[in-house]
Amino acid sequence: MQAADPTSSVTEISNHEEAADCISRCVIIWKRATGYLRKAIINSVLSVSLLAARNPKRCIGLVCLMSITLITTGLFTNFYLDPGDEKIFAPTDCLPQEHGRWVGETYPDVRRPTVLTVHADGGNIMTYEAMRRVFQVTDMVRNIDGYETICAGENGDNEGCRIPGPTRFWNHNVTLFEEQTQGSDEAVIQTLSQESLDGAPFPHDLFIGKLQWEVVDGHNQTNNSLITFAQAITSLIEIPEWSNGETEAFELKMINLLQPIKDEWAAQGEDQPYRLELYAFRSISDEVTRAIANDVPLIPCVFAIMAAFTCMVFCRRDIIQSRALLGIGSVVTILLSIMSGFGLVFIIGLPFTSMTSILPFAIFGIGLDDTFIIVGAFLRTDPTKDPVERIRDTMEEAGMSISMTTITTTVAFVMGALTSSIPIIQWLCLYAFPTICIDFLYQITFFVAILVLDERRIAANRRGCCVCFRVKNHDKEDVDTDEMDKDVSPVANHVEAPMVDRFMNWYCEHLLHPVVKKIVMIAFLMLFGVCIYSTTLLRQDFKPTDFLPEVSYAGEYLDVMDLYSNRKLPILVHFRDVNQSDPQVQQQMIDYLNDLGDLPQVNSTPEICWVTDFQKLLNGDDPAFQAYSSLFGNNSTLTFMEKLDILLNVPEINDLYGKDISDFLADQRRVAEAQPANQGGGRFKFFAFDPIYFIWEFYTDVPSELTFTTVSGVVAVTVLAFILIPHWTAALFVLPFMCILYMDLLGTLQFAGLSINPLTYICLVISVGLLVDFIMHILLRYYESTMPTREEKVKDTLRTMGSSILVGGLSTCLGVFPLAFSSSGIIKTVFVMFMAMVALGVSHGLLLLPVILSYVGPTVCIKLGRGDYYLPELAEQEDRIDNEPEAPPEAPPPAVEDSDIQPYVSAAMAQWPSEDPLAPTGTEETLDTTEEETPRNTEYYTSSVASSDEDAIIMSRVSFDSGIVEAEPENSIAGNKEDCDDDAEFSI
Description:
membrane, four-stranded antiparallel beta sheet, HMGCR/SNAP/NPC1-like_SSD, Patched_domain-protein, SSD, Multidrug efflux transporter AcrB transmembrane fold, single chain, mainly alpha, transmembrane helix, 57% helix, elongated, 4 domains
């Protein structure tokens, strides 16, 4: 056997030491960088809040003036209410968007359809009375004052308003109809069953819903047979478009005229079975706008509910200590932030949609969370201090917490705007993130100013509500002074109800019972498993009626079309950038149509296609065109356009295709004659298009869009947690908890009977920014806790921040509760989603996360305010990153007695900065080392440490740069040895 090389062990040890030293350098650099960032945030918050605290009245006046100016300017300049069409749901760079723009430019809407449908709630509509009612409502439209003028408008033609429906069988003449039918149902059936009208095929499926032909030898016959049953008859009126809005005004007259008829027919009940449904080109936009307008009164309801809730929370029996007006001020703060944020976006010119109308309810919930945290921290300060100094202490404690959650929520919305290509998502996020930022700014200025004025009111012995009246002989017996002196959570010191305070004390004791912790872990594990399974059952679905009010004539029309119509979705096939007069190109066009017809979703040939009919006419293949094929004879010198003119002069063909195709081909002739086939760039030359493609594109892209947007948002907030919470373990909690919460939300969505559609997609994008707040607040407070053990840190967190989370969650529920009374399905969907978010966020933040922290939470302490101790040994060690590393000592240091440690402590205290780095110039702060209580903002302070042969000498280390109290093995430990857990964890 060969002897072991002693140099190899030395080399391995040296490599390990170099690796450890490299890691230590990186950690120190990271702590310094993040420490500077946190200090910059704290200093900024302090500067702004102290400025507002010193000038409260000016601050309040300036914020009110700014908010009113922004919202007024926005409403009267670039405010635009977009009811929303299919385009806003499709990605901006998708093919349907490009095709839709081209179709809109090439085929401008020159006619607007008005649809009148008569049905019998599923009964047979093939009767004389039903057809008479179709004539009745059609003639009512034709008799509206100004109908003839509209029909002869700037986009009109010799035909005026077109009525291609079944009334054409009687030349739109009700007198002729009555004379020919004589009240006979059979006569109506005979006429409506005719295959053609004026020599052109009549599209029965387009105007007669769910029709059934008579059965002969077991087969439905459509040739020379009768329609025995149908559920709806539709009359279509195509009105020319006017650029000055005259057509829209006429449509409004028509709707106002026919809606009473519709209601009258429905009110007759079983006396007559017929019902009327109407639809105009403007119907959807009108009804979506009405839905938004109906939801606007919900915002004052939210304001009233939140004001009542905060008044109840801040109210006390003592007429002076009661802070009811402070509660109203907190709600006014959020309302002003919404006015400013929305006004700013209005000025920019972003459309306001039905989706955007859900944001005020979310902002109310988010804003009140910050309010409760600020008030709770303020009431934990020394009440004998000046209010401005108390604001300083408040922001030192709570400033980083509210700043961090604001940053994470804002970044989540910014990522949604940057990563999503769907316009309605982008607009929503662009409305959200500036409003959230402004709300944060108003919280540390406007609300701080109100808080200072309220404190001055208390000092002046003025009543809580009637501030004009001073209480001369104030009976202080009603005030629980013992409770006021306690350093408790936001539920103490007459901010929240004592019941909440007592509940949180009871709750944290019982939650951390070993049996309860195991039950919580098992319950949430089961919930996670069930939600994962439920997520696999999610489906994609979309109903246009979700955007409409519950009671809507347009929604009823769409429902009737689904129930009683067998109309197929008409898909238009477009050909561009090719020479359509070329026979080879025409054959390619026919081949493309045949390929589309072979698709299982189509499984038919085009019902109307000019190129196929043109070929049939030229070749004489179709018996219907044989009489006209002789027009061409043997004259082969006719050009394509001359042949097409002959084709369009055939009356039946002219009725079928009309003048539009001729106009289009005339416009395209210059391009078609100048370019060979397939020339003109890389865009599609043959393509099918319909506006429904926008929604289809949404469903095609939503899996990848949702995945990318969610992943980017979760990663962004995790990185922010790694930067803003100065301990690397924070990211290890944020990332898995966000993933768990998101999966639970998807599963809950399926439990509630919802599906993936544009509405739920938007809520899922918002959820990242809302759910992270519940986790961040708890984590940051846990790291700041001065308790020595995990369970004590968890209890301290629940007693302080836990109360704010609980009340904040309740406030969010109240904020979205009025959505349950919305008249539109979209807002009700948002209500369900927001309630699910709050329930999951509060339960995971107040149940699961504390239990996990009690098992594996770090025991370090992080203080983000001022007053951290500074030791010269620490500065010397951290400065080693700029110098050569020192060689490790050859032998461990000797044991040190208590008396040996005292000089180090004295030297450290001598170098403690006498001037507060965050205080204004001229203010000084001294440290009274004679007090027995722990120095402010410092986790542990040790004057002596016991030593033994088994344990290394450990000394308190506090970083002034980063604000972290940590310990280094064999060099330092935080706190008294007897105060630490046996398994206490320390960050290297």
